[in-house]
Amino acid sequence: MLGFLSARQTGLEDPLRLRRAESTRSMLSGGSDGVIVLYDLENSSRQSYYTCKAVCSIGRDHPDVHRYSVETVQWYPHDTGMFTSSSFDKTLKVWDTNTLQTADVFNFEETVYSHHMSPVSTKHCLVAVGTRGPKVQLCDLKSGSCSHILQGHRQEILAVSWSPRYDYILATASADSRVKLWDVRRASGCLITLDQHNGKKSQAVESANTAHNGKVNGLCFTSDGLHLLTVGTDNRMRLWNSSNGENTLVNYGKVCNNSKKGLKFTVSCGCSSEFVFVPYGSTIAVYTVYLGEQITMLKGHYKTVDCCVFQSNFQELYSGSRDCNILAWVPSLYEPVPDDDETTTKSQLNPAFEDAWSSSDEEG
Q1: Nearest to residue 177, comparing CAs of 150, 203, 204, 216?
Q2: Is 346 exposed, middle or buried (0-12, 13-18, 19+ CB in 10 A)?
Q3: What's the CA gap between 323 and 283, in Å, rounded?
Q4: Rounded Cα distance, 174 and 116, in Å
Q5: Pick from 316, 310, 325, 321: which is nearest to 357 by CA?
Q6: Alpha carbon 172 to chain centroid distance?
Q7: Does the structure show a pLDDT above 90 at 4?
Q8: In 3D, which of 285, 364, 278 has the Cα closest to residue 321?
Q9: Which residues lie across from 91 on neighbouring strands?
Q10: Which pLDDT tens digit goes with each residue over 295-311?
């Protein structure tokens, strides 16, 4: 909401969109059982800790339910009347939110790991899809067909993400240790293959033109689109300049990554210092994006965390875990400070503000 108010005050946001967002605080979640659930995020109790209610679901008895694990769900960026989901059952489905019926289904020959719609594009309705095959598929929601195929990777595509800055720029991450940036308007497609050594290693070296020394299973643009973060099974996270592909060499230390599929991490937006939130076992590691400093570990889950997403308009973080819970995390504005005689405490504004995160214990 803070983001909406700021944008509205400067005249950058449509007031109708603000009203619509306030009245539709909803979240989609997809489970390993193929079920999709829609939650109402409104805290009607006004309590610090509360449980969100499930509004509706696409359950096992639904004729169009996914047969296997749902890997990605996403609202249509310009209208919550539609959303998409992809699954290990080799399908991408387009849903009508009002009727919970499929409007379209895209079938693939391979397991689907990830998909993404551009958050900013008004010029195309392409959905990028990463599968167990080495080709990136682009599905056109207008025509209902796979309109493009991007070739260049050698192994499965574990993560895809459109730039939040440019309509036609797409980033893809693969098990071949490579990350590629594409301009989907170009015949050749690939703009840059990210090189962790910034071209300083001989092409004969095995790691030349690779982003990581292992599978690259997660990527995320910063909110302004100027940088790209990637994570790999080499337990490293890297920050890249998205315009020239340069490795900025920010050192985040060891970033534990045992995921055998895509790892969905997220970046803050609108904070005084931007943060990246990365699933780390049963916790979530929080780092400063540009300095690489680990700020804290968010503890609340009991089993492995598979995904997290940041909601900038309300400055909230959501995390999903194999403990079957979805937790909402909000920044603590105030922290207790011992008085001089250490017998009483008082509160002062937390100087870190965004650094002190607490769970509001949303259960999925």
Answers
A1: 216
A2: exposed
A3: 12
A4: 15
A5: 316
A6: 13
A7: no
A8: 364
A9: 107
A10: 999 999 999 999 999 99
Q: Which domains does the chain have, with CATH numbers?
A: 108-264 (2.130.10.10), 268-330 (no CATH)
Per the CB < 8 A criterion, the answer to whether 42 and 32 are in contact is no
| Predicted TM-score of the model (pTM) | 0.85
262 in helix, strand or coil? coil
Task: Count each helix (H run) and each strand (E run) in the chain, helices first.
Answer: 2, 28
The residues, any chain, with a CB within 8 Å of residue 245's CB and separated by 6 or more, are 181, 192, 193, 194, 195
How does pLDDT run across 152-182, given as a tens digit for each residue?
999 999 999 999 999 999 999 999 999 999 9
Distance CA 129, CA 349 (A): 44
| Single-letter amino acid code for the residue at 343 | T
Phi-psi region of 151 (alpha: psi -120 to 50; beta: other; left: phi over 0): beta
Contact yes or no for 94/82 (Cβ under 8 A): yes
